[in-house]
Design goal:
It contains ten helices and 13 strands. By secondary structure, the chain is an alpha/beta fold.
Length: 275
């Protein structure tokens, strides 16, 4: 019997998840499928009934449903509850369990591309305090890395820091240059970098020479922030690896095999991106 999985969103045509999971299904010779399904917000409860009835083993959740599915899941793991979003669903015995693998994707990407990145436990600057930042902060907290959280609206950063807890100080984006000399890692969780947008007034020369700069945006693959960092001789890690690594736990839960993020897979996904 074919094992079926999915990604739901609205819209969903842009998703690379079917290509990622489809590659692994073929690679391992699995009798399975993975499809992108456009589900409007009003249709979510009905879709969950299909899940409970056993039509799917589970699937991924993307914008705008990551928060809304909370109320529809029969159980949500504590980590997803802390992050405040669910991106992976597993259906078993008529119940739907929700989890969040974005933090694993973030850690897996950096561990693969820059294995020593967390060895010194130096301070990380996290840019942005929206939904995407929550998973990043949880990931950094799991490695005991202190954070300076900078956001356009500081009050939003203050609320997020209180929610996550741990060693997080806050400020506005204008505080970047003051924070830069003590930072070993810079993480952009905002949408700045898409459509050629860039941060204004950031002096990357103030960062230590061994600092690492990463961006969760993967289209374009090299954002203006990453291009500027590379031009200054800093190490950079793009956001595509986060997308690939966050997919691993879900695939294992649905199909029973833990796949590998390979260079060939990355090349296939890169070919679909605008450069």
């Amino acid at each position: 019997m074919t094992t079926k999985a999915f990604v739901i969103g609205h819209p969903i045509a842009h998703s690379r998840s079917p290509l990622i999971h489809g590659t692994w299904i073929a690679e391992h010779g699995i009798d399975g499928s993975y499809e992108a399904i456009d589900v409007a917000p009003a249709e979510l409860p009905g879709f969950f009934e299909r899940l409970r009835e056993g039509e799917f083993a589970g699937g991924n959740v993307t914008i705008p449903h990551k928060e809304a599915v909370f109320a529809l899941c029969d159980s949500v793991d504590p980590l997803a509850r802390t992050i405040g979003a669910v991106n992976t669903l597993v259906a078993r015995a008529g119940k739907v369990h929700g989890t969040n693998t974005d933090y694993l994707g973030f850690l897996g990407n950096l561990d693969a591309a820059a294995p020593d990145w967390s060895a010194g436990k130096s301070t990380a600057i996290v840019l942005g305090a929206g939904g995407a930042a929550r998973a990043i902060l949880v990931a950094l907290k799991s490695r005991s890395i202190p954070v300076i959280l900078l956001n356009r609206t500081r009050a939003t950063a203050d609320r997020l820091a209180r929610d996550i807890g741990g060693d997080i100080s806050t400020g506005g984006l204008a505080d970047f240059n003051a924070a830069a000399p003590s930072a070993g890692l810079v993480v952009n969780t905002t949408s700045i970098g898409m459509h050629s947008s860039r941060f204004e007034g950031f002096d990357l020369d103030l960062l230590p020479s061994d600092a690492l700069v990463t961006d969760i945006v993967y289209a374009p693959l090299v954002t203006p922030l990453l291009a500027d960092a590379k031009a200054r001789g800093l190490r950079i890690v793009d956001g595509l690896g986060m997308l690939l690594h966050q997919a691993v736990p879900g695939f294992e839960a649905w199909f029973g095999i833990r796949p590998s993020v390979t260079k060939d897979l990355r090349t296939r996904i890169e070919a679909t991106l605008e450069h």
